[in-house]
Each structure stands twice: as C-alpha cells, then as structure tokens.
Amino acid sequence: MYGVILLLVLAMVVAACSSSDDDGKSADAGSKKGDGGKNQVEIFSWWTGAGEEDGLLALIDKFQEENPDLKVKNAAVAGGAGTNAKAVLATRMQGNDPPSTFQVHGGEELNKSWVAADKMEPLDDLYKENDWMDKFPKDLIDLVSNDGKIYSVPVDIHRGNVIFYNKKVFEENGIDVPKTFDEFVTAADKLKKAGVTPLAMGDKESWTATMIFENVLLAELGPDDYIKLFKGDIAFDDKRVVESAKKFGKLLDYINDDHASRNWQDSAQLVANGDAAMLNMGDWAKGYFVNDLKLKTNKDFGYFAFPGTEGNFSIITDTFGLPKGIDNPDEVKKFLTFLGSTEAQDIFNPLKGSIPARVDADESKYDEYGKDTMADFKEASLVPSLAHGSAASEGFLTKANQAVNIFVTQKDVDTLIQSLKNAAPEM
Ligand code: BGC
C-alpha cells in the first residue's frame, strides 16, 4: 500500500509529463479510457526509443497480423526502468482508468502494488487453457503469484548482474576479465592510468547506480542472505552491508565525470565507442549494442558476471497482467495468450537482449550471449533485483534510489546505511 501512495506522490510530480515517446509521437496514455473500447487493446509500457522499443513494435506487428480485427494502441511512456511510466500508471489505476494491460515486474512490484490493492484478475485459467504450467520455470511462476494465484504473464527474463566490456579496450590495455572485487580494482586502476574511464555510469535516473549497489550486495552476502536482507531477516547495519557500501563507494571512483547527465543508453555509448571500458547494466544493453549500435557480440563487446556474483542470476522479468474493471478482458486475454506463446517470445527476446521466459523456446534464434544466459539461468541461484522492483516494494525502492543518489555525490556510508534502515519497514 505504501508503494501505491508513494507512486501517487511521484505521479503528481510527473503529472505534467505527457506520455510521448522519444520520437515525439504522442502515446496518448491517460487522455482516454484505457481500454478504448472492445476492439482496442492498449499496451502500456516504458519501452520507447533506442534499445527498448524494437521488440515491442515487432510483437505488436505480429499480433496485428494475426488479429486484424483488433486495434493495438501503444501507450508507452519514456523513462528507463519505468521512472515515469510507473507514476503515470499509478494515477490511472487510482482513477479507475487502467490500461488494457501494462508492463510490470514480477515480484513485489506486481504483488505489493497491484495485487495487494486488489486491482488484478487472477490468470490461473489462462495458464491452464494454454497448458503453460510446465512451460514457464516454477520459480518464475512463483514470482508472478500471490496466495496461490497467478497474476501475470512473463514475456522475458533479463539479467542484471552482468558487466559488458569493450573488447578492444581490454586488449589494448592488457586487461583480463576480473572475477573478484580486488581484480576489478586492479584492472580499473590500470585503465584509469591509461586515460580510459573504467566504469561507465549514467545515473540521470538513479536506478542505474542502485543496480551497481545491489550487485555489490549480492557479491558480499551471497544469494541466500541477499534474499534474507530484502525479506527483513538481516538488518541493513549488518557488517556485510556496510562493507558493500564501502565497496560501492570505491567503484564510484572509477566512473565518468558526467554520469549525472547521462541515461543508461548514453552510458552504454561510452563503452561502445571506447571512452569507457565497462558497464554494469541489465542485458537490455545487449539489445541496444547489437540492434541499435550494430556491435557484434563477443567481437566488439564481451560480458562477464559482476565480480563475486558468478553462479548467481539477478532476475528481472517483464510481465503483463489483466487489470480489474476493463471492458475488454477477452481481447486482452488474446494478447496475453499471444505474449505467452513461443512465437511471440522468440520474436521479442532476441531484439530485447533478454532470454525467453518459456523453457521451450527456439534457442537457435539467440546469439551467443542469449545461449550462454539461457544455460546460466538453468544452473544459477536466482535472486530478485531491487532496482527493478522484484525484491522490495515500490515505497522502499523509491527511498533506496534516493539514498543511493545522495551517496553517489557524498559517499557517506553511515548516511546510506541509516537511510536504508529507516526505509526498511516499508519493504
Ligand atoms: C525493464 C527492461 C527495460 C529496462 C530499461 C527494466 O526495468 O525490465 O525491460 O529495458 O528497465 O528501461
């Protein structure tokens, strides 16, 4: 509930923000009743612009082709990780004007914000009709379930604990892939001396810094205790959390000076053009590198697990559900059925940089990165991402992002720990 209230406050801040995408096309979200009548399916997401929208547009095209009688309205609101979209969505949901379906991360973002507020229809029947129960990994179904009912359909699985690096920069500077924090620091010092920014960051939207912090936490705590931390079973003043804050501070010594004016795409460009060596980003960055910047996987850029997190998989899953109170549930179920098909998942994910949520997708459609990630996903310990809404409520995440944002400029460990402790009851 706190999450919803906070989102509402945030919504007021961005209320003036019209929902237009990067190309300036008005997405028109919020100006009409969301479902827009029987023959229209309105898809609400934050997939706009470079690296984000290719997959969505390909999905929409295919769905349109198969359902010529239905009109699809793309109601995307720009802003990485849903920075603006989540607030616009909160306003619409509170005003009983839900979109036909909307992007929501599996885990607490779905459960604590929308299921807890009784805004979502269960989808167990849809899963049964489509014979999906063994087509999605059980852990993933659990992430989109609450009190034994399933509430959304996952379209992808992104990984958050990856570092992408510029291969040429590594080669030219004699850098080996660092596996530990100390190895990372040694490599970063060498790069810095050579005049290369070791780590690209673009925290114009602060979630990108929160991602780095959560990966340091994962490395320090290990997967079980990382999960316990966000369940409230380990305190934020635990010495390993304090150590994580210190290490996070150390990593910030290696970022680009203009980090605060860049978004995630802008920071990825620094690695693409060789001004920076590494980037910790979800693998939507892979989609951006390959599809937008035309870089080649394992030739122009490589990838490795965030130091200390090998064998773990920080999971970010984009899912879509069925809001209560819309006029066209049958049409929306058609779209959700499509979204859950191997056909749709294999159109979307190779473009998006993610792997399919389904276990029976066609591996040949994915590049080496995709294949490696699918293999890792099967073996790894899965942990929910904080920065992308799965580990804790929106209320906590908003405060964590604010605390991290302050830390990036002040680097005060005690203040960060105290802010997280204060926010913990909202998890
Ligand atoms: C979403 C991704 C998206 C990324 C950047 C994440 O929260 O899960 O689909 O590409 O944000 O906007």
UniProtKB/TrEMBL annotation:
InterPro entries: Bact_solute-bd_prot1, SBP. Its main location: other. It is found in: Cell envelope. Signal peptide: none annotated. This is Probable sugar-binding periplasmic protein. Pfam families: SBP_bac_1. It comes from Tigheibacillus jepli. Keywords: Signal, Transport. Part of a binding-protein-dependent transport system for a sugar. It comes from the Bacteria. Belongs to the bacterial solute-binding protein 1 family. SUPFAM superfamilies: Periplasmic binding protein-like II. Gene3D superfamilies: Periplasmic binding protein-like II (3.40.190.10).
